[in-house]
Structure formats: structure tokens, C-alpha cells
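User: These chains co-purify. Model them together.
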Amino acid sequence: MKITNVVNTRVLPIDFEYYKPKTVNEAIQLLTQIPDSVILAGGLDLLIWIKMGQLKPRALIDIKEIKELNQVSVINDKIEIGAAVRIIDLEKSEIIRKKIPLLWEVAKEFSSIQVRTMTTIGGNISSASPASDIATALLSLDTELEIMGPNGIRKVRFGDFYLGFRKTVLAKGEILTKIIIKEKSENEGFGYKRVARIYDDIAKVIVATRIKLDSKGYAEKVAVSLGSVAPKVVRSPSVENYLLNKKLNEELIMEASYKVVDDISPIDDIRSTAEYRRKVSPVLVKRALIEALKGVYLA
Amino acid sequence: MSYKIKFKLNGKEIETAVEGNTLLLDFLREQLHVTGVKYACGIGECGACTVLIDGKPALSCLTLAVEVDGKEVKTVEGVDNIFSQKLVDEAGVQCGYCTPGFVMLFEYLPKYSPNLNMSEEDLKKYFSGNVCRCTGYVNIIKAAKLSLEELKNKSKPND
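Assistant: Joint model of the two components:
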């Protein structure tokens, strides 16, 4: 089928080759050898970009059925999630529910059923949207990524993965293979809040939080991350440092939450305005931190 | 570029060739004349093109035809579930364009929630990826609720 010079969502306007390698190494070889080849996973971003004429790849390398990318395993206190694991599988996983409750919460609320069955966790985070709920959550957790490429395996801290809007550290020929997350420890609680026009819409603002208290009840670790308020998902050191090593209560959290505006740089776009985002971010930070604090005491 | 594929469509084995850039939606409608699957938004927002691939719901407007090689595809033509009748009984259908998508997603419900315990709120969330512009959803959700009740009664062992 060939329709050219028409931007629409009906057809894929360009022809391309399609490959379905069986192993990661085979996929890396194809990616390295074929110029303008791209990785196809869930396809929810990629195929829309091709439809809209924003991307004109020569070949699609379909990695979503590679076995080694479809496993969830527990190794000591870490959970390794294959990059091609679907969001719905995270939602249905007892391991994720018990050991990474924040990620489970996000997976469960993620878009629609159809999108959850198609979207892969690796695809969602490597498409590097600042409005990714999954990425916002991973940024608050102790997350590390395993990347395989022509030069072997390397590991990257999740906080170092994004270079900017739609930009990651992934080089040509490299594939994100594993998302490695430390399991929840004792005295740890989490919060997750978002505002969107309707339930399964992409969010105007996303906040994920994590609080860990020491044995005396002081905040040993505070993580606050936000989505949709900067070119990439961001942490809020101003809020975190304000609360660190203190005994937390609602008043203190309220004071701290206003500091979030120092760490975000929202814009006006199709979904919201910079002004609204600046006003609603502190509110969501406050609510998500209170949720996390309550979570510690409930655990 | 053309690719040979072999797959099952509604239980029937099909072997044919497809272009790499042909979407599953177009392949089903144009090449196989299975027109129950509908095109609406083309970007994964509306659910009208929902089919089941190996039992799991997928958006055929964002799936390549070549991807279903070796798999089993189900469309509304191959489905006979209680929800279809309930949609008719409860006036959950007006123009009918979105209906196949809703029916296909319901087909997956017993797998998604095996105990079939879903509140009205759960059902609204469950169908949040299917857009209907006529009915206002009230009768669709009602039909889904009644279907669930009937499914539950059927699965109860007779004493």
C-alpha cells in the first residue's frame, strides 16, 4: 500500500523491512548492520510516529518476543524485569505487587487495558516521554538499567538515562534489556498522584514519592519525582533536602511541597498550561508525600 | 517488502503474503474482508479496532499484519458471547460502530478478572479504552454488569 505526502493515522505511508530476531545478540547485529533501523516493541509510539511522517525507518527490528526480554526474576534483594515485559504482566505479577508496590500501582492505573497489554516497560521508558508514569515511578526507586550493545553489557543508573526530551543515552545498536529495581524495604512507604483530563489520559502532572524512616522515626530517605513538568522526568531535590533527617508530619510536608517549583520548568502545551502545572505540582507533591508517610506506618 | 504469514483467524488456518507496512486492521478488512473490526482514531485512543491476539486484546490499527505470524487472531465474527445479546437487550447499541471493540474487550474479561467480581466503577475503568459517542455508556455498563451476573450464575455449581 502506498500513499505519499498525506499525514494521517490510517496507513503507514512508507515501506520498510521487518525482522523478528530470536535473541538479543541477533537483534544487536541487525541494528548495527542496517542503517536507519529501529526497534519495534509495543509499537504504540513508533507506529504512530511513522504514520505521522515523523520517522522514516528502513527496517523495524521486532524484539518483543525475545525470550530473555520477557522474564521477571528475583535476584537477592533486586527484581530484574525484562524490557519486553508488558504493563499488564506487571499488574498481574504477585512479585511486583509485593516487592515493588509503587510500580504495581502505576501499572494498574496505566492507560487502558488494550494499551497495557501492548505496551512494554522498556519501550515506554526508552521512548523518553517526560509524561511517562512508569518513568516517574522508576526515578523515585533505586533503579538501574542493563543495556546490551555491540560492545557488550553496561549498566546505567536510571537517573542518568535521559539526556532530554525524547533523548536517552542509548547509542546506535544498543538495546535496553533489563530494568533492575531494589525491592521495598521495611519502614518504607510510597505515594503516586496524577491529574489528567479523563481517567486513562496522559497526565498533566505526575508525582511519585518514596519515604524511608530510620528506627527513631526520622526521614532517612526522601524521593520526590515528577512527570510532565520538564523536558524529562525530574526529581525535586529542594523538597527532598527540606525533609531529610527530620521527623515528618503534615505541616512540615506542606511547607516542603511549595519548594517543588524551584525544580520544575513546565510549559504550555496541548494538555495544560505552565501556570496550572506550577500551581498543582505542590498540591500533588504534598498529597503523594502524605500517602507515602501513611504507607510507612501501615506497613 | 512482502512476507509470508500463517496464522489462525477465528479458528480457521490462513496462509498468505502481506506487505511489511500493512496494518493488521487493513489486512483483515481489505484483504480478508473481515469488516467487524473498525478504524476510528488510528492512534490507540478509541478501541474500535480491538481484536484478540492469542487471547489478549490488541489494537489492530497499531499492529502490523506480519506480527501475527504463528498466532491466533479473534475478531467479533468469531465470538459469540453473552454481552452481545445484553447490549441489544439493554439498548447499549446505537450506531454500532464501537460495538465490536466493546464485545472483543468483554471477551477478555474472564481472563483479566477470573472471579468475575467487578463493581460498576471497575467496569467503567475496564472499558476506559473504548470510546462510544452515542450511548453515553450507561447502557453499555449496565449490559456488562448483567452479563457478568449471568456468567457468575452459570459458573456456580448446582447443588
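The domain at 17-62 of chain A is CATH 3.30.43.10 (Uridine Diphospho-n-acetylenolpyruvylglucosamine Reductase; domain 2).
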